[in-house]
Design goal:
single chain; 275 residues; alpha+beta; Dna Ligase, domain 1; four-stranded parallel sheet; 8 helices; 13 strands; 24% helix
Amino acid sequence: MADFDNVTWVLEAEVFPASHARMRDAVCELSAQVVLWRDEWLADDTWPRLPGRTVLFHGSLGNAAVVEQRLSWRPGSFCATDAFRCSRWYPTCGQWLLHRTWALSSVEELVEASDAVLGRIGGPEVFFVRPDSPLKPFSGRVLRRDQLGFGALDHGFYYDDKQLPVIVAPVRVVSREWRYVVVEGEVVAGSAYEADGRSSLPDDPRGDPWAYASSIAQRLEAPQPVYVLDICEADGGLALLELNPFGGADLYACDRSAVVAAVSNFAMRRPRPGG
């Protein structure tokens, strides 16, 4: 077994309060170090430097992005936000993607030129819209044309830029969803979940959803070596729903021990997240 004495996990406990203890315990099982995140570190640049250690962050998406961009930890956070923009990976994943037809727009263009934008996806009266960014400045939603307006897209509440890129697609009915943690093309843990977070169950590695996720993970061009992959059931078949940064992902009922061990092993061998 690898020696994890030089590994530190920085955990933002309040982000996932129901599962923090499981994550902390999984780190301790490896004899690795746990450090609890403090927001004031960013205000006064007092985060622990932890020189010479392998450092991994797991917490909120916003802080995961800051860790990736600003902090000196290595590898730090697997949260390369540009690589996870839908418009970056959708074009190479069409054979698996839930939304086979989609269009990239902006909030302003969608609101003020809706006929032109929706015409690119067949002109539906009801459509799905979500931010292009994995940081999700507003939640994805289904809208009717007569509902369109800046307020309907949360402009002025969570963001102010009317040029915010969005993805627009026809509505698909999703009946079930699963999340998988992928490390170097291998699914290391999985969970079935409800998107509103009300319930989750560990997934069976022998089941069709896990096998489907594994086949995708082995073939797609991954945004980073460590990430989460969501698949869903729609119209009786399985499809790729989303790719998300690991550093800010809810792991639902994924086996924390398997996740922590696999990510720690990778980080010790290849200490930079994009490498």
